[in-house]
Amino acid sequence: MASHKPAVQAVAKGINKTLNKIFGCLTLLTLYLSVNILDASAAWPNEALAKAYDRQAFGL
Fold first, then answer.
1. pTM for the full model?
2. pLDDT for 1
3. How many domains does the chain have?
């Protein structure tokens, strides 16, 4: 049992590193997407206001 310990630890370390990379990528992707979604949702009211202003200004 004791002879397997270093190998098991090495495998666990490798799995840990891989998982950290995957979760790191997912976190970055999630942040990127959430920022883009927030930007898009922030643009909607501004576009609506601009259109309303145009209608008023030009009597459309």
1. 0.46
2. 55
3. 1
